[in-house]
Amino acid sequence: MDFATFLIQCLNSLQYGLLLFLVASGLTLIFGIMGVINLAHGSFYMIGAYMAFALAPVVATTFGGGFFATLLVGTVLAVALGYVLEWIFFSFLYEREHLQQVLMTYGLILVFEELRSLAVGDDVHGVQPPEILAGTLPLGEMMTYPVYRLFVSGVCLALAIGMWFVFTRTRLGMMIRAGSTNREMVQSLGIDIKFLYRVVFAAGVAIAVLAGMVAAPVSSVYPGMGNSVLIICFVVVVIGGIGSIRGALLAALLIGAVDTFGKVLVPQAAGVLVYVLMALILLWKPDGLFKAG
Amino acid sequence: MKLKTLAFAAALAVSSAAQAQGAKLKVGLMLPATGTFAALGTAIENGFRLHVAEQGGKLGGREIEFVKVDDESDPAKATDNVNKLIKRDNVDVLVGTVHSGVAMAMAKVAKDTGTLLLVPNAGADAVTGPMCAPNIFRSSFSNWQPGYAMGEVVAKKGHKNVVTITWKYAAGDESVKGFKEAFEKSGGKVVKELSLPFPNVEFQALLTEIAASKPDAVYTFFAGGGAVKFVKDYAAAGLKKNIPLYGAGFLTDGTLEAQGADADGLLTTLHYSDSLNTPRDNSFRLAYAKTYKLQPDVYAVQGYDAAQMLGIGLAAVKGDVSKKAEIAAAIEKAKIDSPRGAFSVSKAHNPVQDIYLRQVSGKENKLVGVASKSLADPARGCRM
Questions:
Q1: What is the DSSP pairing of strand B267-270 with strand B245-248?
Q2: Other beta carbons within 10 Å of B99
Q3: d(CA B188, CA B334)
């Protein structure tokens, strides 16, 4: 590998790492901070991707908007979905065992897959990036780099900083973190923890859906796409340390680098490298890189 | 007591009547109804049912009754599912499936129990290789076939150095092996074999590798969502205009709508094309479109031909499935009048068929010509 190629691979790994954080960010919120094991996270991601595909023509005809209008409408719908889901299902789960959370969220995966199949069918779809971001930048003598991928990285960084700020620097974030440590105590301090959690859960779902929509033009849209990201999302959150946004970002970048260079340097072992990394880090730090609190 | 004996005798009589010639023939359809391959399962079943309907609902003089199991494309559940069909539902014939891993489990059980098995898609070389058996037939292809045909095409185009890229799993490995065999036989060289774990779709690192090694051409095997993303990423990385891309036909089958302009001009090899324009294919396409309000694809053709093969076998024994040797002999001798063009089966029971070269144009796989005439899988490891 010459130096120019090495630099391009570094860019690839950075970009993939940021994409991973984007995909896992909703899980960081719901699993990492709220402490609910949410296997349906992949489904929310999938719903987002399918929204980017199926919602775009509807938004274009009713509001006349393009890609960004679709993002906005999709996010609003996602907040509503998350709010209702929390109300009907998840609000009963906080005080229950993890196994029951696993069972219910697994059930949700099956329901969402089937609904998706009924509503949009089982075909594979592509989503075009918006006009202004459709260009490419030259890279080396042969390659070009899609501008849209840089945009995705930008969205991811903004999201990471935004989440970090809200959770560590605002009163709202403090209440949420307190709630995940001791629900009763927070309640007895006069904070409406039920409503608060409903909102946070809705935000987590909305972030997962937004990630799906933003990633759709680079990832394409296909049945079962949610399940394929689910495991890697859990790896990101676990390596980073439950509840730590900083940790999740670092973990995602680390996985991006290991995966990218692993594929190139040791292709035979590329499938297991990420999990070897996870095992090593957990041996070294059983709580992940940055354990919150 | 007497009543009980009577009932028992009656039950016996019924069950032996079910074995008799006049009774319905039970066909066990083990296909994916959910998951990534659900659409393929539907197409295969549609094709199969279309041929049965054309024959008035009967094959070999016996009415057909379908027993369906969703295999979920899950190899872990495959053996259980096959056993359910054979032992609980007492099916006479097994048909399935799409996923190679599941098909291998089916082949294993079929080999052990001697039940007639028709494989309408799964391309694993082993099904008509080491796993081959007198009662196992395939109506589709082996992974080796489109790969080998493309190896000849790419060599004829004058390309010398080629990089291959695929998922690290049986289908990808076998396809690349077939390509390499033909391409290197004609004097070319595969300079690098890139692969990534299935079903990983983060191609960027490997695309950079391709750009760095500057080959004359790239050969690839991807299918479904991975195929869409690969073709789009290949174009977005600027490689499409510098390094021509060739692939096994699944790269552009059922994926063209999603790939859009990025797939335009791609050359692929497969045993079927959307525009064969033969009278046989046209009448099949018309009948299929009328019945299902859908355009048929290669999977529908494979399902249709599986039914044709079963029909030929059953006709030779007048519907008596117990005469296994005669059924096999009849199918081995037959020329199957497929929409893809007539084909016969090899000694190992895989189609000996023309592999077409197709080019993507206007969201269709247009026929360019025959890449390899009457190509037979070498059936390595088959002892029969």
A1: parallel
A2: 27
A3: 37
* Min Cα–Cα distance to chain B from A204, Å: 25
Distance from CA of B36 to the nearest CA of A (A): 6
CATH topology of domain B2-141+276-349: Rossmann fold (3.40.50)
Angle, helices A147-169 vs A3-27, to 10°: value is 50
Q: In Å, how far are A154, A293, B372 from A127, measured between CA atoms?
A: 19, 41, 36
At the top level of CATH, the class of A8-284 is mainly alpha
Torsion of CA B274, B277, B281, B283, to 10 degrees: 120
Which A residues in the span 89-128 are in contact with B, Cβ-Cβ below 8 Å? 113-114, 117, 121-126, 128
Q: Architecture of B144-270 per CATH?
A: 3-Layer(aba) Sandwich (3.40)
Q: Is B293 helix (H, G, I), strand (E, B) or coil?
A: coil
Kindly provide the ipTM of the predicted complex, given to two decimals: 0.87
Residue B252 phi, psi (nearest 5):
-125, 25
* Number of CB pairs, chain A paired with chain B, less than 8 A apart: 119
Which residues of chain A are within 8 Å of residue B259 when distances are taken between CB atoms? 126
Give residue limits of the domains in chain B. 2-141+276-349, 144-270
- A239-262 in b/e form (b: 16+ CB < 10 A) is bbbbbbbbbbbbbbbbbbbbbbbb
pLDDT in tens, B213-264: 999 999 999 988 889 999 999 999 999 999 999 999 999 988 898 899 999 9
* Among B208, B224, B254, beta carbon nearest to A12: B208
Residues from chain A contacting residue B233 (CB–CB below 8 Å) = 218
The amino acid that residue A152 corresponds to is: V
What would the two tokens of residue A112 be? 């969402």
- pTM of the entire predicted model: 0.87
Reduce the secondary structure of chain A to three states and give it as a string: CCHHHHHHHHHHHHHHHHHHHHHHHHHHHHHHHCCCCCCCHHHHHHHHHHHHHHHHHHHHHHCCCCHHHHHHHHHHHHHHHHHHHHHHCHHHCCCCCHHHHHHHHHHHHHHHHHHHHHHHCCCCECCCCCHHHCCEEEECCCEEEEHHHHHHHHHHHHHHHHHHHHHHHCHHHHHHHHHHHCHHHHHHCCCCHHHHHHHHHHHHHHHHHHHHHHHHHHHCECCCHHHHHHHHHHHHHHHHCCCCHHHHHHHHHHHHHHHHHHHHHCHHHHHHHHHHHHHHHHHHCCCCCCCCC
A138 lies within 8 A of chain B by CB: yes
In contact, A288 and A282? CB cutoff 8 Å: yes
Asked whether A178 and A186 are in contact (CB, 8 A), the reply is: yes
Q: What is the pLDDT of residues B337-377, one digit of tens each?
A: 999 999 999 999 999 999 999 999 988 999 999 999 999 99
